[in-house]
Amino acid sequence: MTHRSNHADELIDVAALKAQSGEASFAKGVQLLSQGRVQQLSQDGKTISARVQGGHLYRVRLAIGRELVSHCNCPAADYQTICKHGVATALAFNRQLIGLGGVEGALLQVPDERTRLRAYFDRQEQPALLEVLLDELGRNPKRWQHWLRKVDLSEQALSPAKLKTLINKALPRQDMWEWREVSDYFAEATEQFEAIWEGVDALPLEQQWQLTHHALKRLNTVLLQIDDSNGDRFELEADICERLPALFALLPWSEHDKVNWLFTHLVEQPMDVFPEEEAFGDLPQSPAFLALCEQGLERALTQGEQDQDQEQEGNWELLRYAHPLLEAARACGDWRHELKLLASMAGCTWDWLKLCMLCCEHQEPLEGEYWLTKARKGAVSPHEQDACDEAEIALCVALGEKGRAWRLARARFERFPNIEGFMHLRQLQQQLAWQDETLLPWVEQRLKALAAVRQPFNSSSHQDALVRFYLALDRVQDACDWVALHRISPELLLTLADRIAPAEPVLAMSYRFRVAACYVATGQHHGYEQAVAVLRKLEQSLRDDKARQEHFDQQLRALATEHKRKRNFIQLVNQHFSCRL
User: Fold this and answer.
1) Exposed site from 116, 219, 467, 548, fewest CB < 10 Å?
2) H or E element in which residue 1 lies
3) Where is 44: in which H helix or E strand?
4) Other C-beta atoms lying within 10 Å of the C-beta of residue 517
5) CA atoms within 13 A on the CB side of 11
6) First to last CA, the chain
């Protein structure tokens, strides 16, 4: 969301905020602010964060720059530029900034709410604070129960068995698919783990490790029955995945034991949720770890030869063992070992093509021809055959067979004429320093023939190809002549408008109105917003040109009249261009 600030880029522009959120969301955001629903407002550089209590507790993040970008985990944020929770957060930030006097540079100096509260509480007497705390907890049953749990835990000896039971209770097995239930589930679990970690941290290292590992396994288990597409588990997941490698590094195990454990959990029995490989230091690249991967790959290859019916599952298993080995080979530049590993797993056209290109990249085209021959034998689909042609062209270039490479490239374009193919042809022509006077008229003829083919669903891709061809050659007038009679995609029409605007401002304006009309014709609110965005950008370019302003107003009135039944679009037009209608 673009904005212009009132105080040296400090305050968020309320008018722009209202325009982007819409009247309804803005009004609801104002109401949330007035009800004191914005909590934990804080700032890190030019990022504002808060939690806003609505039907649920939502996490909001605003990024301030030339544009204000809003992120929120509420459902409305998926289709709104800025939701009511984002509005409330922005207004809370403004109110806090104004409270500081809007001083120069205050954007980077606003103390967060936590700091302000701490300063206030530091000035109070302890008995009074305790009464305030109890009163506040009494108003929030969840936090009351949270602190009661901490009291209970503090009054008993927490054995590893007890803590394991608490972990299981914090992450109960449930079938859960509704996002609000999932959000509440992980919010409650995260709160319970605050107390659990205190108990875990008081235990000896080995028991801390075992319980943290159990928590990770438990999280993976419950996620099999929970749809957490919204990522509500991330806070808890990050906590576990940070603790586990830190404890792992402190364990008094031998390197042999650590390597075996890591191999088992990273390669042989991988979990969906697990710390990143880099968190375990150099062990995943150690010779002992890679030796286990080599042995595992050899076993899997042998087993694969015996179980031909499990090819797909076997390929996944092979890749699990091979991935660390491939990474190690690439890291030290041992492409021969990389080739050997890939060849041991190859079984389809794409595998053999990868081997072919690897040989080609390392100046071994003759060896690459062997793998290309295998790839061609296995190629069935047109896509596979085309990929083989592309690989053969690369081999010809590497072998210095320029004429053959050019003939193959033209034949490939003949079969699949498109703008990407033309660009590849031009690149190859430059690479080979090849003269071909017939290339451009021949490509233009093929693209025109392609554009004449009737396409389903009103697709404009073939029409676009010819316009992109003209623009690539700087034949702007030919592009305009084609666009006058044919329909192209809105995005490409905007590109053409930008190209001709300095010399043909009126024609460029008509293109932008064509684009706006196309967006409005979708009948969707997002399309209306896109149309208005195009027109607002066009309006800003008019400056003081009275003739162009009058022409703009005429076309705007015509567009509004044509789509007068689309009330949401007309509302946006009135909101942004009322003075022009």
Assistant:
1) 116
2) none
3) strand 38-44
4) 17
5) 18
6) 25
**Integer Cα distance of 473 and 181 in angstroms:** 57
Encoded tokens for 79 = 């289709």
Identity of residue 146: H
| Helices marked H in 8-51 | 14-21, 23-34
pLDDT digits (tens, 9 = 90+) for 268-308: 998 999 999 899 999 999 999 999 999 999 998 888 765 65
Are the C-beta atoms of 557 and 564 separated by less than 8 Å? no
- The DSSP result for 455-491, as a single string, is -GGG--HHHHHHHHHHHHTT-HHHHHHHHHHS---HH
C-alpha–C-alpha distance, residues 529 and 428, integer Å: 42
- The per-residue pLDDT for 1 is 38
Give 466's contacts (C-beta < 8 A, 6+ positions apart). Answer: 444, 447, 448, 450, 451, 482
CA–CA separation, 385 and 390 (whole Å):
9
Sheet containing 38-44, strands listed edge to edge, beginning at the edge strand earlier in sequence: 38-44, 47-53, 57-63, 69-72
> b vs e for 432-445, b when ≥16 Cβ sit within 10 Å of the residue's Cβ?
beeeeeebeebbbe
How open is the CA angle 489-493-498, to the nearest 5 degrees? Answer: 150
Q: pLDDT value at position 80?
A: 81
pLDDT < 70 regions, the chain: 1-9, 99-113, 155-157, 305-314, 455-459
The region that residue 548 occupies, defined by phi over 0 for left and psi between -120 and 50 for alpha, beta otherwise, is alpha
The whole-number pLDDT of residue 6 equals: 39
Query: Partners of 176 in the beta sheet?
Result: 226
Separation of alpha carbons 501 and 531, rounded Å: 19
Two tokens at 216?
């990770």
Q: ∠ CA 578-579-581 to the nearest 5 degrees? A: 65
Taking Cα atoms as reference points, which of 226, 234, 216 lies closest to residue 164? 216
Q: Which residue, among 21, 33, 31, 27, has the nearest Cα to 79 in the 3D structure?
A: 21
Dmax (CA) of the chain? 92
